[in-house]
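Standup, Tuesday
Yesterday: got the pipeline producing structure tokens again.
Today: sanity-check two examples.
Blockers: none.

Example 1:
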Amino acid sequence: MAAVSASLSLPSRTPELSVRKMSILNKFHSVASRTHCNFDAIFKPSTLTLFISTQRPHAHIKSPPRNTIRCLFTGIVEEMGQIKQLGTAENGGFDMKIGAKTVLEGVHLGDSIAVNGTCLTVTEFDTQLSDFTVGLSPETLRKTSLIELEPGSLVNLERAVQPTSRMGGHFVQGHVDGTGEIVSMDPEGDSLWIKVKASKELLKYVVPKGFIAVDGTSLTVVDVFDKEDSFNFMLVAYTQQNVVIPLKKVGQKVNLEVDILGKYVERLLSSGFVESIKSS
């Protein structure tokens, strides 16, 4: 994992949360409904600044969009990027501009980049300004922790793997299954124990010593606490310096993606696959 570029002015902590999910979604829908109007406004009192521009900045594009589907990740974060801008797009959608360097190497329009574990598509990029833009749908805002981001927030970034890439973590699709809530953060030496509360629907796929992606970071589950609807994991010093999880606080949300293999096994068992094998 690469360290964050010195050219990004990175705050030591994630900005305080002051925006609730429904208020942001209401703003999104109210602006998106006016598809023929141009605005230049900042919504208040929300601390999430929505920049609405009548013109898009010029992007230095190396090649036209491609239809190649590449959306598989390893959960090994390549770098931490910084949110530069959040706002409505000209088409009524919602755009997020992120400052980064490593993930821009060899980037093309239409490429997939995981942002805090959420697979998003590059719609613009500028290698000179070291940033790229992705689009967000209302469903993405509802189902992920991206709703809590503000300008200045740090995010985990990883490019989709290629056939020649090393599989350093585990199979991560970038399809967030849901969010969890950090309930405790306890240091032990130079390591950090983190406990996350999750829904029972997700927790049934979480097993001790199994994989889970937390904000796009491939981690090993240490223990599962069924009575508390939670699980924990440990971050070593190196990981703490290269992912956004330690910058969060108790009560904040994290994106969770469980191991896809558990879902396949559940599906096979529920379909009567085992019985069909026994009877054959």
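Example 2:
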Amino acid sequence: MRNMASSGASARGIAAVVGVGPKLGRSIARKFAHEGYTVAILARDLGRLSRFADEIAREEKAQVFAIRIDCSDSKSVKEAFEGVLSLGFVEVLVYNAYGQPAMSWNPINFTDIRIDSFEKSLAVSSVGAFHCAQQVLPGMVERGKGTILFTGCSASLNGIAGFPELCCGKFALRALSQCLAREFQPLGVHVAHVVIDGVVGPPRPGPSTSQRPALVGEQHSSGGTGDCAISLMDPDALAQTYWYLHIQDRAAWTQEIDLRPSNNPRIF
């Protein structure tokens, strides 16, 4: 079920990142590892996940655990978090799983959507988040501290023609975030929803953002020209915001934040 890569020891709690691929999820995991956390990274592809764990452990001299999870399956979520919770107190949960397959980022005619596909998307985008949050909240409430961060997108805020699967799942995730924030913030648990209003690209070459200063106005282009050029969002830069949300003073917690490239005011 899981694989481990470790180097050194962590003096902090566990940061669990659900939905780790080669872009944002990996960057978030790397950032928390850099800051001294033991990190559990979870996704369906354990082979690829193990490579990410080895890479992050080596670069950040941290403990990183790779654990397989299928967010659409409640039994898989429970089994995965038995492994996560065995590592210690989960202080941070980042839910970054998407219900829309990578090959399906094209509009789909509503009448062509299969009900099983629609249900699977809802299960990953929102029901999986529900199950994951239920696994970690008791420990957070007991200790009076913790952070839960949900990754949203443009579809969290607006219905988009051709994307009902994604929109319905992300609308529900946003509602879950708001409900949990209102219930658990008074108990010391920070819950926030991060709207990624743009296209996430690969990290910029060179040291990760966790190891280099931010450059004001720095852009990362998709290679287009003129008005058609799209600035891809650097996942290492986005990961800085997730870290900032975690360390916010509880006197002024953010419940929702939206992030977008400076030269692309809105994607939809």
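Quick observation on example 2: The longest strand covers residues 146-153. Residues 88 and 96 are 21 Å apart (CA to CA).
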